[in-house]
Write a structure and sequence with these properties.
By secondary structure, this protein is mostly helical. Helix content is 57%, strand content 5%. The chain contains 15 helices and 6 strands.
């Protein structure tokens, strides 16, 4: 299928101000129905007991996994199993605590959201730069080439038909899984520092963190490097420490990339372009989100619990400030409303079907005739 069609106080870069068409009755009705759901059920949009319980489990899981890897002095095969558990628990922190916190979806209280967002700094990233990269550049302009940072991979991969094709992209559906492994390593060691120095994320100008934000940035990096390198070096040779870091961060990057990419880079999601110098899109913002996003494995309760509702990516993009534990119920409302108003709603039945679609889309974009 050819596709042609918080807590930060900074001002958005002028070059990023893409405009969308005015809302229609569809958008108003969808919002009304979702609000009605909460009014009738009495369920909270944020500060959900399920979320606080999940937070406790995830943090305990991460602490036990780290202790098994660093302090246990177990046989190598046991330490490797502990490392796999640590990989999954660290990503669970990012998928659940950090993600909801930075979006302001965890709690009605700013301080709690801020604390949850800071878990990103604890696991090696930067909550400040994540806000710009994810909340602003990605959520505002999903799948718009030159604006959505999540589909920008330089020359290494082609995620949009509007990006330049190089001859080696013919094999990107094969080598991309290896490149995905460097996502976490780049965040830890390069991307955040580069953004701090240049005040840019790709071609987008951003403000350098100031005050508490700059202290949190360096304090978070120091804490992460201490946990990742210094503490383990008291128990293992530095070579082992470095090897385990690469092993853990590499697999962590693969898992993160796959979970995040399935929703937008697939055979159904569109890659629209704006018209002329006005940078005006042909659709409303909500219809744009629906046309560029897909859910997957909505009936898989284990996956939904683990990835923090990221498999309900449509609902997350439409209502990013609502806690993800509400997404399964909201998805029924969204799907029904889209059907009534004849608006596209994409969903894959399973994780495997979503993964297959992502693979086929990468393969398709790598072909020389794809422009």
């Amino acid at each position: 299928m050819v596709k042609t069609t918080s807590s930060q106080k900074s001002i958005a870069p002028k070059q990023d101000k893409v405009r969308f068409s005015p809302n229609s009755d569809f958008e108003k009705e969808l919002r009304r129905r979702v609000q009605q759901h909460f009014d009738q059920t009495g369920l909270p949009k944020r500060d959900c007991p399920k979320m606080y319980f999940k937070t406790s489990l995830v943090l305990i899981w991460a602490a036990i996994s780290y202790s098994l890897v660093v302090f246990s002095n177990l046989p190598l095969w046991c330490i490797l199993l502990g490392a796999v558990s640590l990989i999954m628990s660290l990503n669970a922190i990012g998928f659940n605590l950090m993600h909801d916190g930075v979006h302001g979806a965890y709690s009605n209280r700013h301080l709690i959201n801020k604390l949850m967002g800071l878990s990103m700094d604890l696991i090696g990233g930067s909550s400040y730069f994540w806000y710009w990269k994810h909340n602003y550049l990605h959520h505002s302009y999903p799948n718009i080439a030159g604006h959505d940072d999540d589909i920008e991979a330089g020359i290494f991969a082609r995620f949009s038909p509007h990006q330049k094709r190089y001859f080696f992209h013919r094999y990107q559906h094969i080598y991309i899984w290896f490149l995905y492994g460097f996502l976490a390593i780049k965040w830890h060691l390069f991307d955040d520092f580069y953004a701090l120095y240049t005040k840019r994320i790709n071609e987008h100008s951003i403000d350098r963190p100031q005050g508490w934000n700059i202290l949190i940035f360096f304090g978070g990096k120091l804490c992460f490097f201490t946990l990742a390198f210094i503490v383990p070096s008291f128990f293992y040779p530095i070579t082992y420490v470095l090897l385990f870091y690469v092993f853990i961060a590499f697999l962590q990057g693969v898992q993160m990339s796959v979970i995040l990419q399935l929703a937008h880079c697939n055979q159904d999601a569109e890659f629209p372009v704006h018209s002329g110098d006005s940078k005006t899109m042909a659709t409303t913002w909500i219809v744009h989100q629906l046309s560029t996003t897909a859910d997957y494995a909505r009936n898989n309760r284990i996956l939904n619990w683990y990835v923090g509702g990221l498999n309900f990516q449509v609902e997350h993009h439409l209502f990013p400030t609502i806690c993800h534990v509400n997404y399964p119920a909201i998805s029924t409302i969204v799907a029904k409303t889209c059907k009534e108003y004849n608006v596209a709603y994409f969903a894959y039945d399973s994780f495997v079907s979503g993964l297959r679609s992502h693979y086929e889309w990468l393969r398709y974009l790598g072909q020389p005739e794809t422009t």
